[in-house]
Amino acid sequence: MFEDPISVLILAGGRSRRMGQDKIWMALDGAPMIEHVIGRMLPVAGEFLFSANAPERFAALARALPVPGRVIADRFPDAGPLAGIHAGLLAARHDLLLALAADMPFVNLALIQRMIALADGFDAVVPQTVHPETGEITWEPLHAIYRRSCAPAVAARLAAGARQVLSFFADVRIRPFSPVEVAALDPDGRSFFNVNTPEDWAQASGRR
């Protein structure tokens, strides 16, 4: 395990409408996609937290993990990933929380370890990538490190009706993890590949 383990929050509240079935339980290289995500993060995880629409299934998964695992409930219902991050920050037993979308099967351990190392003095470390079509710099807030100190700012934004994860960034100390820094460890940007459609699934299967 990592010298200073963190809490890992798996955000699995999506409805998989474009996939047509619950994508995170689909078998990728012989195992459900969610298990690939968990397996890659085990070296840094002191615990796993699951923000999910199907708590019973995730409760069984949590019990089978080699580290503590729990399913958590949102304090702000129907408020999307921002509410999941808020619940994770409140539930986390470690000061640093990795918030990670459940449909990112190629999350890069070295990238996460570098983000953890950069967290001192900041409330969050959030990667940035270059949009392939527009060339604009975009944030990756569902592949980011958040300190528990972010919780009040997130709660305030949720209480005001905000739903975008980026809404609280102006209220905390953010350490951007630039595209250049990301590329040094993940030149192909595989970490941020989301599986949303059957076409994405076919591409993910070919990458393994």
What's the structural blueprint in terms of helices and strands?
Blueprint: E1 6-12, E2 27-28, E3 31-32, H1 33-41, E4 45-52, H2 55-63, E5 69-72, H3 80-91, E6 96-101, H4 109-117, E7 124-130, E8 137-139, E9 143-147, H5 151-159, E10 174-177, H6 179-185, H7 198-207
Parallel strand pairs: 1-4, 1-6, 4-5, 7-10
Antiparallel strand pairs: 2-3, 6-9, 7-8, 7-9
Helix pairs in contact: 3-5
Low-confidence parts: none
List the quaternary state of the chains.
Answer: single chain
CATH superfamily: Spore Coat Polysaccharide Biosynthesis Protein SpsA, Chain A
Strand content: 15-25%
What name is given to the CATH topology?
Answer: Spore Coat Polysaccharide Biosynthesis Protein SpsA, Chain A
- The radius of gyration is 16 Å
Tell me the number of strands. 10
| Assigned CATH architecture | Alpha-Beta Complex
> How many domain regions?
1
Helix count equals 7
**What structural category do the secondary elements indicate?**
alpha/beta
Shape: globular
Largest sheet: 8 strands, mixed
Mean pLDDT across all residues, rounded?
90
Secondary-structure element string:
EEEHEHEHEHEEEHEHH
Helix content: 25-40%
* Beginning-to-end CA distance, first to last residue: 25 Å
